[in-house]
Amino acid sequence: MKLDNTISAVITGGASGLGEATARALAAKGVKVAVFDLNEQKGEAVAQELGGVFCKVNVTDEASVDAGFEKARAAIGQERILVNCAGTGNAIKTASRSKEDGSIKHFPLDAFNAIIQINLVGTFRCIAKSAAGMLSLDPTEDGDRGVIINTASVAAEDGQIGQAAYSASKGGVVGMTLPIARDLMGEAIRVNTILPGIFNTPLLAAAPQNVKDALSASVPFPKRLGNPPEYASLALTMIENGYFNGEDVRLDGGIRMAPR
């Protein structure tokens, strides 16, 4: 897909981190962007700077997602690109014993479900609604009607201790990529997923420097955290390369996560 000012894009989680970097990279190509996020202050600032539109969206709420797409399409037109970056995680063992008193507890199911709802169901909700909108468009000159990029994680393949919910949610994103690509292949809509490793995002911003140094040292090469523009670069490659479809690609400096 050729990227220019005739193309519109929706980026979930677009107010910061990987989503913000992708919104900026798309806007630099002339693409009109809609930033979906819960952070109004940051989201409005990013959208205004890029000449786009901000939509306050909770991906776990159907009415909120519907309202977001309605607002975005009214402002910049029907999107041909969807990049799903909205997500979160937690770290809770499946079952554990307290070191203080020996009491036993298990992973609260509501906490498990919350991660699934945001990372997996929320991603699919946006995919389904965006794809339905893309079907109303004619294909571009290069044959694409639309492109969808999802964000999983290396935890989908080598999740660490305490990451049962997170790994399950991201594994689900990986698992649904090819079936969705097959669902949409007859409609000229391509679907791919990126599995980032350890990236320098707001999630790590508050971490002590020694923690960041240790994480950087665990990456085979280059020995550093990933930078959000590197994610954005791969997302744009997946969008612009018309033969990229149904793929799940790790972007991780060669890391394979240890148990902890």
Automatic annotation (TrEMBL):
Family matches, as InterPro entries: NAD(P)-bd_dom_sf, Sc_DH/Rdtase_CS, SDR_fam
Keywords recorded for this protein, A-Z: Oxidoreductase
Origin species: Sphingomonas palmae
Protein name (Swiss-Prot/TrEMBL): NAD(P)-dependent dehydrogenase, short-chain alcohol dehydrogenase family
Pfam families with a match to the protein in the record: adh_short
Taxonomy, superkingdom: Bacteria
Assigned protein family: Belongs to the short-chain dehydrogenases/reductases (SDR) family.
Molecular function via GO: oxidoreductase activity
PANTHER family: 17-BETA-HYDROXYSTEROID DEHYDROGENASE 14-RELATED, SHORT-CHAIN DEHYDROGENASE/REDUCTASE
